[in-house]
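Side project, low priority. Logging it here so it doesn't get lost.
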Amino acid sequence: MVKTFTFVNAEAGHANRVYQGLKRVAKKIDAEVYGLFGEYDFLVISDSQNLKGATKKIVQDIQNIEGVWTTRTLVEAEFD
């Protein structure tokens, strides 16, 4: 299992549109979405079966939302 934390920035004036898009995508990919104050506008937390699945969620689902400006993704480290 791969857990990803994707920070999303919206284009100026498009935060609400991006938030609505992220909520729709979150239902499809079984993710959590949080609005943020600070350097990033949103955080999407998702579990995937493998890195390929995680990549698809980020590149095809999240980054394709109209108004998404940038994303930055962190991948959970496993120490077991």
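Brief comment: DSSP finds two helices and four strands in the chain.
Revisit when time allows.
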